[in-house]
Specification:
It contains two helices and ten strands, in the order ββαββββββββα. By secondary structure, it is of the alpha+beta class. The N terminus is likely disordered. Helices cover 43% and strands 23% of the residues. The strands form three sheets. A four-stranded antiparallel beta sheet has the order 3-10-5-8, covered by helices on one side. Strands 4-9-6-7 form a four-stranded antiparallel beta sheet, with no helix packed on it. A two-stranded antiparallel ribbon has the order 1-2. The N and C termini lie far apart (117 Å).
Length: 279
């Protein structure tokens, strides 16, 4: 057998390398550079297509989301606000809220108020509606805990709520130092179409529209008072929860004190009836 073959390493191929156990098989196969470059280019092209497809989907979703937000903002911009509010007015203070009726045809400015503190007197509560010239056009009755108003006009209107007399010309009672929560609502309703009275049928339609508007005002006032009732229910529920928690705490404390007193009595009686023996 021929001995190991020595090579200088120059121009040596895998077939020329030997070991003691025979020729070493060269199992590693190298892929041609052109083939690797082609596959890498294909992968890069596929990645770009996948990224472009994901970008298209995400961009479309972002576009639809943005359009939805804009539509919601536009709807909220032109949708009239409706609902009842409540505010806490300090003793001797006044809060005013303004609304603007569009110029042109007079609109209906309606609203109501309700004193939510049933345990306090409503004598210091006064509600006044002012027009744009700061002239009172409606005011609540004396010692009234609730009221309703409906006027026609254009321009700016201010609804002012006060708690206690703030001057010699006030018609409400003197301030008593108690803060009061008052629920209120104010709305601006644009005139309904079809109120022109050109003929008998038009007059009938105008009358029906006027009745329907009054019915709508009544329903809105009823809904406002339901909101006030819910606010009262919430206040009463909170008070009942606080009372219940305090009762539970005092009951637990009473049980602990009673148990300690019982233990002390048992120990005292045991010591009292203990028989002592002396040697």
């Amino acid at each position: 057998a021929a001995g190991p073959k020595t090579t200088s390493g120059v121009g040596t191929s895998a077939a020329d390398i030997y070991s003691d156990r025979g020729p070493i098989e060269h199992r590693r196969t190298r892929r041609p550079i052109a083939q690797e470059a082609t596959q890498q280019a294909n992968w890069t092209h596929e990645d770009r297509e996948w990224s472009a497809e994901n970008c298209t989907l995400s961009c479309a979703m972002a576009k639809y989301l943005l359009l939805g937000q804009l539509a919601l903002l536009l709807w909220l911009q032109f949708e009239p606000a409706s609902g009842a509010f409540s505010t806490v007015i300090g003793s001797g203070e006044e809060e005013c809220y303004s609304v603007i009726a569009p110029a042109g045809t007079p609109s209906t400015i309606s609203g109501n108020f309700d004193a939510l503190d049933d345990e306090l007197s409503a004598d210091p509560i006064g509600v006044v509606l002012y027009d744009e010239r700061q002239t009172p056009i409606w005011r609540s009755e004396r010692q009234a805990s609730e009221g309703f108003f409906s006027v026609y006009g254009t321009g700016k209107f201010d609804l002012c709520i006060q708690n206690g007399s703030m001057g010699s010309d006030d018609y409400v009672a003197e301030q008593d130092g108690n803060d009061r929560e008052v629920g209120f609502a104010i709305r601006v309703a644009l005139p309904s179409r079809g109120r022109e009275e050109a003929g008998p049928d038009d007059r009938l339609n105008a009358h029906l529209i006027e009745l329907s508007d009054k019915l709508l005002e009544g329903l809105q006032t009823m809904a406002d008072h339901q909101e006030y009732m819910r606010e009262r229910e919430y206040r009463h529920t909170a008070l009942a929860d606080v009372t219940f928690n305090r009762v539970v705490q005092w009951t637990v404390l009473e049980a602990i004190v009673l148990a300690l007193i019982s233990l002390g009595q048992v120990l005292y009686l045991k010591k009292f009836f203990e028989v002592k023996t002396y040697l």
